[in-house]
């Protein structure tokens, strides 16, 4: 009996190992094919299946540096920062600092004075699911003013004026992507914890997970990739200033895999918080949103997805809790079509 048990245990271990090797080869083949068709784009992909890590990387850090991109190479994760901010909001719920459907009125810095028409109207969950009805920054105008650093002219006074001068909510309860919404969420967590956003994200996500190559303001490091616009021109890494909680973070495949592992682990704070963010807070026609994350359901499979784009890089994070897999895709060029194509290939591979 003992011999039989050992035999079947060994067989199961071998089967899992073979599956891991097989999926790794399939995904590496997918990335290699995309890089062959897009040789000027640097790609770094990290993925996990049943807690087992795999990486596929192609390209060079930049045209002048022949160092190859690897799992530790630094990219802009851009709006993927929003799911980190949403996780901090959910952790504040677990810490009994806020309730997710509290109105924002009593949690904003004192500089904000909401118009009477806005009082007790906007909930924290509305900000995190892009349905607050509040006005947003005019990104096209900001890019025209400074094509390299469009957020350079945006400061606290800018945000305060936009919110304080708002007299009516526009299409409250309808989806409208919002950078300001996540800037406000960052300031709400600062208010309830009495610390800076940098201190909070470091204390609750970066340091506990030992994400040693995940950076906020100081990202002048040797293993940093170079950003490129869609036409191939060099693009600076963005400095987000007061809008930091919407897109500040720079990271790499290895660190973001650590984050994915924590998200899929229901026994740790980040995983418990992720479950809160995965509830549906907005649903209209084919669009479903949690807190800072898109919810895609197809054939009874639910994937949680968030994309990110700066002017020079594109990224994507996705995971499936039921199937226990997750993936981070990082590109050194703004190319949402390529990013989406890579995700589809990987998602299909995991589904088989």
TrEMBL record:
Signal peptide: 1-20
Domain Beta-lactamase-related intervals: 36-336
Pfam families: Beta-lactamase (PF00144)
Keyword line: Signal
Gene3D superfamilies in UniProt: DD-peptidase/beta-lactamase superfamily
SUPFAM superfamilies: beta-lactamase/transpeptidase-like
Protein family per UniProt: Belongs to the beta-lactamase family.
Family annotation (PANTHER family): BETA-LACTAMASE-LIKE 1-RELATED (PTHR22935:SF95), PENICILLIN-BINDING PROTEIN (PTHR22935)
Descriptive protein name: CubicO group peptidase, beta-lactamase class C family
Organism, as annotated: Pedobacter steynii
């Amino acid at each position: 009996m003992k011999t039989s048990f050992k035999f079947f245990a060994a067989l199961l271990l071998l089967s899992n190992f073979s599956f891991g090797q097989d999926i790794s080869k399939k995904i590496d083949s997918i990335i290699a094919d995309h890089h062959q068709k897009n040789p000027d784009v640097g790609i770094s992909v990290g993925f996990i299946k049943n807690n087992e890590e795999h990486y596929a990387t192609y390209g060079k850090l930049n045209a002048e540096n022949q160092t190859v991109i690897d799992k530790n190479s630094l990219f802009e994760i851009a709006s993927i920062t929003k799911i980190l901010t949403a996780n901090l909001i959910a952790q504040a719920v677990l810490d009994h600092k806020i309730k997710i459907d509290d109105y924002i009125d009593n949690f904003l810095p004192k500089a904000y004075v909401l118009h009477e028409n806005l009082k007790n109207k906007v909930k924290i969950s509305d900000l995190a699911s892009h349905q607050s009805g509040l006005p947003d920054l005019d990104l096209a105008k900001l890019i025209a003013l400074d094509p390299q650093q469009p957020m350079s002219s945006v400061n606290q006074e800018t945000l305060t004026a936009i919110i304080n001068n708002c007299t009516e909510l526009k299409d409250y309860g309808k989806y409208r992507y919002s950078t300001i919404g996540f800037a406000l969420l960052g300031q709400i967590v600062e208010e309830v914890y009495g610390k800076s956003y940098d201190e909070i994200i470091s204390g609750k996500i970066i340091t506990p997970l030992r994400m040693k190559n995940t950076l906020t303001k100081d990202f002048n490091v040797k293993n940093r990739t170079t950003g490129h616009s869609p036409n191939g021109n060099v693009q600076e890494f963005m400095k987000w200033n007061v809008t930091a909680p919407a897109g500040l973070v720079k990271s790499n495949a290895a660190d973001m895999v650590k984050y994915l592992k924590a998200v899929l682990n229901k026994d740790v704070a980040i995983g418990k918080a992720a479950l809160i963010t995965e509830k549906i807070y907005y649903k209209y026609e084919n669009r479903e949103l949690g807190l800072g994350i898109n919810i895609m359901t197809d054939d009874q499979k639910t994937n949680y997805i968030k994309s990110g784009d700066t002017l020079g890089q594109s990224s994507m994070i996705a995971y499936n809790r039921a199937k226990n897999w997750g993936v981070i895709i990082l590109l050194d060029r703004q190319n949402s079509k390529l990013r989406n194509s890579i995700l589809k290939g990987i998602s299909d591979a995991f589904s088989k």
